[in-house]
Write a structure and sequence with these properties.
Layout: H1 24-29, E1 42-46, H2 48-53, E2 54-64, H3 68-75, E3 79-80, E4 85-89, E5 92-96, E6 99-100, E7 117-120, H4 123-136, E8 139-148, E9 151-161, H5 164-189
Antiparallel strand pairs: 1-8, 2-7, 2-9, 3-6, 4-5, 5-7, 8-9
């Protein structure tokens, strides 16, 4: 028996109004009128260590001031966020330590791979970050860098450092969850 995929009633009437007929599976995946994730786009690099070392409190989306050869290098996926950090100085936010490899065909137009880059944020966001860092002992860490439409965006977070015992607790919870998922899979395999 072949399972048939049910379609939306009245072919040509998408409930979201795009005028196409969809199978329910395709409707769940999305159509032209379906709202997209705000951070959808091509992921360039991710700072996985930040989630291990910090409690993430609040995230922001920031633009970055870049040179043309840096953007071309990012399109090739040559970026590293591991040792980078963010500083707020004089009403502006900067990212230091983010490594963007020199563009292969950039010759004299290439800049220093570790140079300081300015982040494009609203003044109220910068003031909120400065207050959290100075008064409450938080830090600002980069989470991921990606393309949103044709622009390079950086997700940054106000975060608090984890203690060693917090990291151990997180690892224990992760192991427990992994074991439970494994048992569930095995149990469902033999039923």
């Amino acid at each position: 028996m072949d399972a048939q995929i049910p379609t939306v009633p009245n072919a040509g009437d998408c409930p979201l109004g795009c005028g196409q007929s969809h199978a329910l599976v395709n409707l769940i995946e999305g159509c032209a009128k379906m709202p997209k994730d705000k951070n959808s786009g091509k992921l360039i690099a991710q700072n996985k260590k930040a989630f291990h070392d910090y409690f993430i409190e609040e995230t922001y989306q920031a633009g970055i001031e870049l040179v043309g050869t840096e953007v071309k290098s990012l399109r090739a996926g040559k970026c590293n966020l591991k040792e980078s950090y963010i500083k707020v100085e004089g009403g502006e936010a900067f990212i230091d330590g983010m490594h963007i490899s020199p563009y292969e065909y950039g010759n004299i137009f290439n800049k220093d791979p570790l140079r300081r880059r300015r982040l494009l944020l609203h003044k109220s966001e910068i003031n909120k970050m400065r207050g959290a860092v100075t008064a409450q002992g938080f830090t600002i860490v980069p989470l991921r860098i990606y393309f949103h439409k044709s622009l390079v965006k950086l997700d940054i977070a106000i975060a608090k450092g984890k203690k060693i015992y917090d990291k151990r607790d997180d690892l224990a919870k992760k192991d427990q969850r992994r074991e439970a998922e494994k048992e569930f899979r095995v149990r469902n395999l033999y039923t």
